[in-house]
Amino acid sequence: MSKRFGGQYSPNAQSDTAPLSPPSQVPQPTRVGFRANLMVLPASFMLVISIFSGASAMILGLVTAALWYGGVYMLRQGIKAQAAYDARRVARRPALPRKIAAAALTAIGAAVAAWNAEATMVTSVLYAIATLALHLFTFGFDPVSDKGMDMADDFQNSRVARVLDEAEAYLTAMHEAAAGLKDRQVLARVDQFQTVVRNMARTVEEDPRDLTAARKYLTVYLQGARDATRKFAEIVPHVQDQQARTDYLLLLDDLELNFTTKHQTLLDADRNDLTIEIEVLRERLQREGVHLDRSV
Known about the structure:
The chain is mostly helical. 72% of the residues lie in helices and 0% in strands. It starts with 33 loop residues before the first helix and ends in a 9-residue tail after the last helix.
């Protein structure tokens, strides 16, 4: 049953509001860092000076700027992918090595810039090699191997990784749609719901056996939540419909309640499994003549 909005992040939150469990290690959208943002400056400088150059110099300058802007974009995406990989216990290596691609684009741009400055071919190549090395030294390489995927459980871990990647994509899309509204209360409410979802994802990640029970929540329900958030973000700025806002917040309440209940069910099942395993172990030890103190 729907309840009135009044969560942890509500301006009218009550002191008896139950705190949420700690955020999951499944990554939230991450900042790419000051150094990566600084890489925009050379590209912007090259773009400006190219406009006031001759025809051939302008073309080469624009090509350089385009390569460097592409390198900045790939670098930002690579840093985000690295953060997501580091935060997960089970993760696949990025399909596209974005940081390496960023270094290559930047190096090619440096070679074109040197050529534009009438450097020799050898000098241009040396500039490219130096730029490539410095870029990789500064920002590092992309992850080159899967993490947390033992050979014996490779199939199950692969399924978990795919589902969690899909879930994280839905959550990211929800956050972006809500952020576009410039409504701090709605954004905080979306982030609170995402914390609950990421806690469930963390549980599934730690015990892949829970995937079957949680898959519908992490795929179908999250897809519906993403679609509802996008539709809400499209409608509200144009019509200022307060009822639509209320309905959306109530939807988040219902979803959060369902996810919290399911997560608790998964935790209870894990505890029951552990209890059964302990009792089986006790019986085996007793058959071997080892008696344990049950008060411990």
